[in-house]
Amino acid sequence: MKLLFSTLLLFSFSFLSAQKDLEKLKSWMVGSYDSHQQAAKDSNYYNISLHMYEIWPERSNGNDFWLYVEQAVAKIQGKPYRQRIYQVIQIDDKNFLSEIYEFPNPKEWVLKWKNPSIFSSLKTEELTKLEGCGVHLNFVKQKRAFTGSTNKADCKNNFRGASYATSEVKLTKKQMESWDRGYNADDIQIWGAENGPYIFKKIKI
């Protein structure tokens, strides 16, 4: 009986800890960012605006949340080059997965991060998952950061003649580092930053 009680207590503690980490992950991800500080120091990087805001809280099953994500060159935010929906899922007490989705008519949703409730008209069955492109994350207490990446070569991509793409992420309370790169069939990088990740500073929660 004591062993059973101890096991249940340990399971409950692990579950609650994971739930807290999921809430922490959401609060750290949500907001607006830009890379102007990095761009000012290094001309190899553009000033990019990144917006990530929660949508569909009513569709959460308790171990996930949904985000609308929009990226654009800061000077032309009305013409984003990437629009996605993320579903961030708690896999177990240590691991999380950010699944990536495309959706129809993205131009209709430009700048709609300012009013996330408008996404209620978009149905989940309209989304297209980018298979193999999910980012696997875990919380590293020593670094006070969530870190992770895609599984190498799993995310198929044909942009600029690529064969696959990779993403590496490090997220802290006020900053996100993101390094997206494309490789050809010979594992030679053909697009993406070469010297390191983009460093996005949070400017609005």
SSE string: HEHEEEEEEEEEEEE
Largest sheet: 10 strands, antiparallel, barrel
Q: What is the number of helical segments per DSSP (H or I, 4+ residues)?
A: 2
Q: How many DSSP-defined strands? A: 13
Strand content range: 35-45%
CATH topology of one domain: Lipocalin
CATH superfamily of one domain: CpcT/CpeT domain
User: What separation lies between the terminal Cα atoms?
Assistant: 47 Å
The secondary structure category is alpha+beta
Strand order across the biggest sheet? 1-2-3-4-5-7-8-10-11-13
Mean pLDDT score: 91
Rg, alpha carbons: 18 Å
Overview of this protein structure:
With 205 residues, the chain is an alpha+beta fold. It has a domain at 24-143 and 170-177 and 197-204: CpcT/CpeT domain (Lipocalin). 17% of the residues lie in helices and 40% in strands. The protein contains two helices and 13 strands. The chain has helices spanning 2-29, 36-41; strands at 31-34, 48-55, 64-73, 82-90, 95-102, 128-129, 135-140, 145-149, 155-156, 164-171, 175-183, 189-192, 198-204. A ten-stranded antiparallel barrel has the order 1-2-3-4-5-7-8-10-11-13. The protein is globular, with a radius of gyration of 18 Å. The N and C termini lie far apart (47 Å).
